[in-house]
């Protein structure tokens, strides 16, 4: 239950930072420090969903085929969002960032949608699995 609350808190922090970024995405120099903050928040949030947690879910739901398949989906989706995260930040931070400043608003909107989709998936599927896991322990 503690992990679910921690992940929900992470969602709130991420959404707050996204809201701040939406006001400045057209002003690259103002967006850069907020992007760094979002980077740290996302790293922290995604790190909480590590292989150890997935292994716990797999072993707990080993005899519940629908839940087990859901864990597989969550793991695959997590890998996809990590790739998109790395791609976005590779393009919009570091040495290449200034060259890509013009594409930030569109890239950010696309990335933002993926992040929001992932958070919705976590709310709808991951959190109930985690809550059941914590009740049974």
Describe this structure as you would to a colleague:
This protein has 137 residues and is an all-alpha fold. The chain has five helices and no strands. The chain has helices at residues 2-22, 28-47, 51-60, 65-91, 104-136. The longest helix is centred in the last third of the chain and has 33 residues, at 104-136. The chain starts with a helix and ends with a helix.
Helix-residue proportion: over 70%
- Structural shape: elongated
SS class: mainly alpha
Write down the overall mean pLDDT. Answer: 90
Characteristic terms for this protein:
mainly alpha, elongated, 5 helices
Layout of secondary structure:
Blueprint (H helix, E strand, L loop, with lengths): L1 H21 L5 H20 L3 H10 L4 H27 L12 H33 L1
What's this model, at a glance?
This protein has 137 residues and is mainly alpha-helical. The protein contains 5 helices and no strands.
């Amino acid at each position: 239950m503690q992990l679910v609350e921690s992940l929900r808190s992470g969602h709130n922090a991420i959404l707050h930072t996204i809201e701040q970024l939406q006001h400045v995405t057209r002003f690259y120099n103002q967006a850069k420090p907020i992007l760094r903050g979002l980077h740290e928040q996302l790293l922290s949030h995604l790190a909480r969903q590590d292989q150890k947690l997935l292994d716990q879910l797999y072993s707990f739901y080993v005899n519940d085929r629908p839940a087990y398949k859901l864990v597989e989906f969550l793991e695959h989706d997590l890998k996809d969002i990590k790739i998109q995260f790395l791609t976005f930040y590779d393009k919009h931070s570091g040495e290449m960032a200034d060259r890509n400043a013009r594409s930030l608003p569109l890239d950010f909107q696309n990335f933002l949608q993926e992040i929001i989709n992932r958070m919705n998936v976590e709310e709808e599927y991951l959190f109930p699995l985690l809550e059941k896991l914590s009740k049974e322990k």
